[in-house]
Amino acid sequence: MPRRYGTGPVWWHGRFRGCGYRITAGREAILDALMTADKHLSAEDIYNKIHPAYPAVGLTTVYRTLEILVNMGLVFKFDFGDGRARYELVEGSKKSHHHHHLVCKECNRIIEYTDFINDEIELLKKTEKGLSKKYNFEITSHIIQFYGICDKCKKKG
Predict the structure, then answer these.
(1) Cα–Cα distance between 5 and 15 in angstroms, integer?
(2) Domain residues for 123?
(3) First to last CA, the chain
(4) Helix/strand/coil percent split, the chain, to 5
(5) pTM for the whole thing?
(6) What gap in Å lies between CA 118 and CA 104, rounded to an integer?
């Protein structure tokens, strides 16, 4: 559960001030819930996680705060095709680790993978460089999701 208000990582506070926002106990609780998560959380998941300790933080506040965090670049928002947005910190307690997602269209299982093959790394670098040049656009990050059927669902069907 969230630590005492004001004890989050220093970079949270600096980023909030730099963007003209205050870091409130509720916002810090939401960030802490994301930091300690072992999966991608929906707004409802975050609300259920923090509500016992912060009953004054409503679901609407969670949604608003998540949009602020996405706009600030602190949180990624994912759409895995199941009708619920999911969130994760851009930089977590273990520092950022770039990963992509494999999403099962049957059971909605999400597999994160970081063990990129050399061909994939080269292709992504080449693609980013080409797009940057073509559109005069500085790429700072990307999100890749592959959709299909996981091994467990293939065995069932």
Answers:
(1) 16
(2) 98-157
(3) 40
(4) 40, 15, 45
(5) 0.66
(6) 24
Residues recorded for the chain: 157
Q: Read off the CATH number of the domain in which 31 is found.
A: 1.10.10.10
Rounded-to-integer distance, Cα 106 and Cα 128, Å: 31
Same domain as 111, residue 77: no
Provide the pairing of β-strand 85-89 with 75-79.
antiparallel
**What total number of domains does the chain contain?**
2
What is the DSSP secondary-structure string of 3-38? -STT-S-HHHHHHHHHTT----HHHHHHHHHHHT-S
Residue pLDDT, tens place only, 22-61: 888 898 899 989 988 888 899 999 999 999 999 999 999 9
